[in-house]
Amino acid sequence: MPTTTTDAVTAVTGCGEAAQAGSRSLATAPDEVIGEALRAMAGLLTERASEVLAANAADVAAGEAAGLGRGLLDRLRLDETRMADMAGQIGLLAAAPFPPAEVPVRDLPGGLVLTQRRVPVGVVGANYEARPNVTVDVASQLLKSRNAGVLRTGGAALGSAAALFDHVVGPALAAAGLDTRALQLVRSADRAGATELVRRPGLIPLVILRGSGETTRALAAEAARHGVRTLAHADGGGVLYLDHAADPALAAAIITASVDRLGVCNRLNLLLVDTSAWDALLGVAQEALAASGVSVSLPPHDHPVGHEWALDTGREATVTVAPAAGPAEAARIANEETSGLAASVVTADAETARLFLDAYAGTGAFWNASTRLLDGFKLLGVPETGINVDHVPGPRGPVTFADLCLRQFVVRPGA
């Protein structure tokens, strides 16, 4: 891990203390006030789009000058369409119902009753890649869950993130009468700030980690050493298995839909083809990928089968293609060779689909659908803070505001 510098310590500490001071404002805010703030955020994404896009254009220009790859630049770039999509998603989030704050569980002996409450975490940290839309996704999810937050993004997107905070997030909190200190952005490109973010259990007890696998795993390990809990999204890469009973036209359509963006985690990364239909379906796959400007890596491979191409600078437009001897073998490869993010089977045979779906252990299992659907908004109708692929109890798959809470048991006399 990088050595934490004095500047990084000061920046993270200042943000954490400010967020902690403002956290009570969110924790006690009525539903209608939270909704008002989110609607204001959606409106400001449209009203102040020019300021945000200007800052983003500067980030993109700097990224191009620095030699960022196509995938990274795709993640970094905003335009009017993406801004409008962000505003639309926040508007839907504002309209989404809040989970019940307290629900009955059971009656206890002695005339007592047990209920279960949802309690905010307090201050939640987030360290994420240079993707400006994630700044809004995370800030809105924390707001909806009534958690304060300290956000830190990659240096390539810092100008865009600062513009979003200055022109959208902060003014939206103020418009609803909430404490603007509750949501903070670490305005330092010092990478040591990420390390400091996961070393403060008393100030920031939970940190959402998104980004490249190696960096995220290192931060998660550092967090564990300091008693900080994490929701980590370290690796991605969607898997698609073409069964011998796959409809060729449907297979081609799903492949095309799966590579519409190359810099995202749920894009098609590994294409498995039933060995018995290899000759028939390989041409279908290659034609669909070529039409999308994507090349293939065929066996024998000089890399791990599950190698994630999205962040492989200069080779982002690549998909690995490999054979699989049936649905069970395809699921095994997906389980053992990839991150466990999402996998899909294309087949007209229901029994084949059942075998694949039952054997695959990842966070999203699909039949005749693209893994691009593994997204909080596309699946659940609200933005996500990230996709958690951990094999432990707790939120898994797309993490949304409904997951960012603590469980509290309350016992009181019955009526």
Q: Notable features of this structure?
A:
alpha/beta, 415 residues, 2 domains, Aldehyde Dehydrogenase, Chain A, domain 2, 5-stranded parallel sheet, 6-stranded parallel sheet, 43% helix, Aldehyde Dehydrogenase, Chain A, domain 1
Describe the protein in words.
The chain has 415 residues and is α/β, with parallel strands linked by helices. The chain is 43% helix and 20% strand. It has a six-stranded parallel β-sheet with strand order 10-11-9-8-12-13, sandwiched between helices. It has a five-stranded parallel β-sheet with strand order 5-4-3-6-7, with helices on both faces. Strands 1-2-16 form a three-stranded antiparallel β-sheet, with no helix packed on it. Helix 10 (248-258) links the parallel strand 8 (238-242) and strand 9.
Spatial order of strands in the largest sheet? 10-11-9-8-12-13
Q: Supply the number of helical segments.
A: 14
Question: What can be said about the biggest beta sheet?
Answer: 6 strands, parallel
| Mean pLDDT score | 93
Write the element-wise H/E pattern from the N-terminal end onward. Answer: HHHHHEEEHEHEHEHEEHEHEEHEHEHEEE
Distance between the termini: 55 Å
CATH architecture of the largest domain: 3-Layer(aba) Sandwich
Number of domains: 2
Rg of Cα set: 22 Å
At the third CATH level, what is the topology name of the largest domain? Aldehyde Dehydrogenase, Chain A, domain 1
Global morphology: globular
Q: Which consecutive residue ranges, at least 5 long each, have pLDDT under 50?
A: none
By secondary-structure content and strand pairing, the structural class works out as alpha/beta
How helical, in percent, are the residues? 40-55%
CATH superfamily of the largest domain: Aldehyde Dehydrogenase, Chain A, domain 1
Tell me the fraction of residues in β-strands, as a range. Answer: 15-25%
CATH class of the largest domain: Alpha Beta
Number of strands: 16
